[in-house]
Design a protein that fits this description.
224 residues; mainly alpha; three-stranded antiparallel beta sheet
Length: 224
């Protein structure tokens, strides 16, 4: 029975923008365009700038034999309808602004991960796992004695570090380890950005549904 429920869930997912982008006939071209225009260069673009840059990219693709018959504006409208792009009108802006939808962002990140997989488990990722495990063990420990012992041990560690620094023994991360941690932070920030984008899209959806329900309500103005 588990396979049946999983199949149903996957059938539903297949209709979502993430899957439709990955399964599109011209997915390699579309994903490359979206990544270059709205991931690597800018996270969001005014409509005129997006159309202009996309026009140049389409001409370059056509010059290499790719069949892309539509105009940049037509592709943007199509991608918007498919849920791969979002459109907003920021306060004070003179035109609409486009960005990747949360699902399209996840699709691009998935493909990027396939093209550039992690070659090894980095030290910073392992350290994060260990830190979270220790924190979980500490915060679920109901034994006052062991909690106090852990706090004393942490206090001793801090005192030793203070003494070391006072004696001029400041230690910094080697350059290679610092770069590794910086990359992990950037990757985490990218994932966080997609999460926030998804939350914003959910609020936009609620806003549209609320407005529609108000417009379609047949009750009196006071009741509405």
């Amino acid at each position: 029975m588990k396979t049946l429920s999983l199949t149903a869930a996957l059938r539903t997912l297949r209709e979502e923008p993430l899957w439709s982008l990955l399964a599109a006939d011209k997915a390699p071209i579309y994903i490359a365009l979206l990544q270059c225009l709205l991931v690597e260069q800018d996270k969001a673009l005014p409509g005129s700038a997006l159309h202009e840059r996309l026009d140049r990219e389409l001409d370059s693709q056509r010059a290499h034999g790719h069949d892309l018959p539509q105009t940049a504006k037509a592709y943007v409208a199509d991608w918007l309808a498919k849920g791969w792009l979002t459109r907003r009108f920021p306060p004070g802006a003179t035109e609409e602004e486009y960005g990747l939808s949360a699902e399209a962002s996840n699709a691009v990140r998935f493909i990027t991960g396939v093209l550039k997989p992690r070659s090894k488990a980095t030290e910073s990722r392992l350290a994060t796992v260990i830190e979270q495990l220790l924190r979980l063990a500490e915060e679920t420990d109901a034994n006052p004695k062991s909690r106090i012992e852990a706090l004393y041990a942490e206090r001793d560690r801090i005192d030793r570090e203070i003494d070391s620094i006072a004696r001029g023994g400041v230690k910094t991360l080697p350059a290679d380890r610092a770069v590794e941690r910086a990359r992990e932070i950037i990757a985490l920030a990218d994932e966080l950005g997609a999460d926030f984008r998804n939350v914003r899209e959910q609020f936009d959806k609620l806003n549209r549904e609320l407005r529609q329900s108000l417009m379609e309500n047949e009750g009196s103005r006071g009741a509405v």
